[in-house]
Amino acid sequence: MIPMRWQRSEVVELLRYVVNGTVATLVHFAALTVLIGPMNMRPVGLANFLGAVLGTTASFFGNRQFVFKADGAPIQQQAVQFTALYAALALVHSTLMYIWCDWAGGNYQMGFLVATFLQFILSYIANRRLVFTIDKRDIH
User: For the whole model, what pTM was predicted?
Assistant: First the structure.
């Protein structure tokens, strides 16, 4: 449920999430571009999955330290939850890329944008509610 009135701390958290997600997405996209460009890897879905692993690693540490500031919780527990979440998201993302590019013949850059937008929405909700939960949400 989206709150009717956002607290300043929630807006700041969301902006941090966007910054962290942008960095992680750039890592993912750079790896994808190298894999399917100079390295000529096919299928594109596999190259995308490998790029997702690199982007996801960057995302975990950014979310833990910068976005949700939940570094007081056990890293092992967060890592397991985050890995499970992002494994599912990577599968969805890679499947969508496979369908978009390899099956339908679409442009990989546009497919990447569509898949990443869906992943952004799902991951913010799940990270905030399931992975990086903290007791002091109302701290400003």
Answer: 0.70
